Amino acid sequence: MARSAKPTASAETPPLTPNRARPPEPTRFEASKDQLLDFYKQMLLIRRFEERAGQLYGLGLIGGFCHLYIGQEAVAVGLQSAMTVGKDSVITGYRDHGHMLAYGIDPNVIMAELTGRAAGISKGKGGSMHMFSVEHGFYGGHGIVGAQVSLGTGLAFKHQYSGDGGVCLSYFGDGAANQGQVYESFNMAELWKLPAIYAIENNQYAMGTSVARSASEPDFYKRGESFRIPGLQVDGMDVLAVRGAAETALEWVRGGNGPIILELKTYRYRGHSMSDPAKYRSREEVQGFREHHDPIDRAAKELEALGAREDELKQIDKEIKDIVVEAAKFAEETPEPEAAELHTDVLVESY
Ligand SMILES: Cc1ncc(C[n+]2csc(CCOP(=O)(O)OP(=O)(O)O)c2C)c(N)n1
Ligand SMILES: [Mg+2]
């Protein structure tokens, strides 16, 4: 077959994305003392819950996979505090406990899911990676890396199609951002101007592989460039910066401008999952983040500057500990599912 003639080269290469509208630069959220206290409590709840989940795993009370969210708390809390439960939807990967807690879902039923009990949010049959709460608009909990991006794009399409005013927030990692289906989803989302926020949680590792070793474009907020999707890079260790970016993103998307990407720069303190010996990074690196960039310490310091007293913060610490102790007790004592449950929630027809 004859090749078609090459088009004549223009004298100058046009700019990659001419005249593209962009959202404004986000500003840090100006929280009142009460608002910041609320974020602090939520982050602390995630931290203590995850620490306890790690212990229960060690005791053999949690089976299967278990991916902890310690270090990344400001991301879920900052973003989800700006969403409207019952109107918007959220979807994420397997590192999902924190996202559920940040949405105000009962810690008891989340912990009971981890221990595989009937009272768990997926009746004890989903475990750590497969938690859902449709009434909260929380669509999982997915183990296939990147799959939630396409599913989330479908949820955004549903919001647009039914005109319900909702936005879908899809979380995924730096590793998932190299998946092919992510870019098919980006293309559709921008083409159809879907109400979608893509939140890339750049915790700098995909299992044992660092971003430096795996990403040809490590600035993940630029990953939508070829689809004309704007992106913003955000300090994911600062809950107020995250909340500020969430507001900018929501305004952009709710304004009918189509999707937006947020790259949240964050760090996971623990291994990829409970079975990760973490030999691919140094102790000093992890310690550096814990000591100098911890999102909870940062919020505590700001609260003190806003007039919170030490005993007030200590009291919150105690309340959170009690909630987590209660969740662990519930998760250990509540019964396992009946054997007959093996046959429910299973698709047996052809679709
Ligand atoms: C399609 C697919 N490929 C590979 C895996 C194995 N896997 C599980 S988690 C993971 C790393 C993903 O890293 P990232 O997206 O950065 O998320 P993080 O774990 O850091 O939150 C891989 C490769 C998988 N579950 N699904
Ligand atoms: Mg990662």
TrEMBL record:
Gene Ontology annotations of biological process type: pyruvate decarboxylation to acetyl-CoA
Listed cofactors: thiamine diphosphate
Keywords assigned by UniProt, alphabetized: Oxidoreductase, Pyruvate, Thiamine pyrophosphate
A Pfam family reported for this protein in Swiss-Prot or TrEMBL: E1_dh
SUPFAM superfamilies (alphabetical): Thiamin diphosphate-binding fold (THDP-binding)
EC number: 1.2.4.1
Keyword Nucleus: no
Residue ranges of domain Dehydrogenase E1 component in the record: 42-339
Region called Disordered, residue ranges: 1-27
Molecular function in Gene Ontology: pyruvate dehydrogenase (acetyl-transferring) activity
Swiss-Prot/TrEMBL catalytic activity: N(6)-[(R)-lipoyl]-L-lysyl-[protein] + pyruvate + H(+) = N(6)-[(R)-S(8)-acetyldihydrolipoyl]-L-lysyl-[protein] + CO2
Superkingdom: Bacteria
NCBIfam families to which the protein is assigned, alphabetical: PDH_E1_alph_y (TIGR03182)
Binding partners and assembly: Heterodimer of an alpha and a beta chain.
Function in brief: The pyruvate dehydrogenase complex catalyzes the overall conversion of pyruvate to acetyl-CoA and CO(2). It contains multiple copies of three enzymatic components: pyruvate dehydrogenase (E1), dihydrolipoamide acetyltransferase (E2) and lipoamide dehydrogenase (E3).
PANTHER family linked to this entry: PYRUVATE DEHYDROGENASE E1 COMPONENT SUBUNIT ALPHA, PYRUVATE DEHYDROGENASE E1 COMPONENT, ALPHA SUBUNIT BACTERIAL AND ORGANELLAR
Protein name: Pyruvate dehydrogenase E1 component subunit alpha
